[in-house]
Amino acid sequence: MISTCVLLLFTVETFAQRKDKKKKSKEPITASVKKPEEKKGPKPYKKVIDSTAITQKGLIDIHKMDKKYLFEISDSLIGKEIMTITRYSKTPAGGGIFGGEEINRQVVKFEKGLNDNILLRSITYVIMSPDEDKPILKQLKTQVPIL
After folding, report:
1. Section 109-118 average pLDDT
2. Which of 42, 62, 93, 116 is least surrounded by CB atoms within 10 angstroms?
3. What gap in Å lies between CA 121 and CA 129, rounded to an integer?
4. What are 81-91's pLDDT values in tens digits?
5. Per-residue 3-state assignment (H helix, E strand, C coil) for 85-107
6. Residue 10: per-residue pLDDT
7. Which of 75, 74, 52 is nearest to 63 (CA)?
8. SS3 assignment, position 45
9. Do the beta carbons of residue 35 and residue 19 sit within 8 Å?
């Protein structure tokens, strides 16, 4: 019984691997001529955001249309660094984490990319310049580098 099942299993697999010669039809290969693409720019504001959109004003305006969210970033924000802080609004009891507690602090910057794309870049500061009055700067100035 087992040997019959194994034999049947291998037989089905061999048929699955066999190429069907009937389906293969030789069609002449023709070179297709591509039309030059027209330069696509941003659509007019009135065509993108219509009267049905629900708008929430803020640092970045958010427009909700049907199931889509559209973010309107003003030109004044492009290139400026923005510090974002993430906090819990509510937490379950007994978790050791409390509402209002800071989770993450991050600096981001919007940049213009190719083809009218907007990029969101995360900026990481590894070393910050110390104050002139801090003792650590005075200590670093007195140190002689080891060669």
Report:
1. 89
2. 93
3. 22
4. 999 999 998 88
5. EEECCCCCCCCCCCCCCEEEEEE
6. 55
7. 52
8. helix
9. no
Averaged pLDDT, 113-133: 78
What's the token pair of residue 112? 């213009």
How many CB atoms within 10 Å of residue 53?
14
Mapped onto helix, strand or coil, the DSSP state of residue 137 is helix
As a whole number, mean pLDDT of residues 48-57 equals 92
- Tell me what pLDDT residue 87 has: 92
Beta-bridge partners for 32: none
Measured between alpha carbons, how far is 108 from 122 in angstroms, rounded to an integer? 4
Contact between 123 and 81 (Cβ < 8 Å): yes
Instruction: Name the helix (H) or strand (E) containing 8.
Output: helix 2-17
Across the beta sheet with 102-112, the strand order is: 81-87, 102-112, 118-123
3-state class of 12 per DSSP? helix
**Global pTM value:** 0.53
Question: What's the rounded Cα separation, in Å, for the pair 119 and 112?
Answer: 6
Instruction: Enumerate the β-bridge partners of residue 112.
Output: 118
Confidence of residue 135 (pLDDT cuts 50, 70, 90): confident
Tokens 């993450």, residue?
104
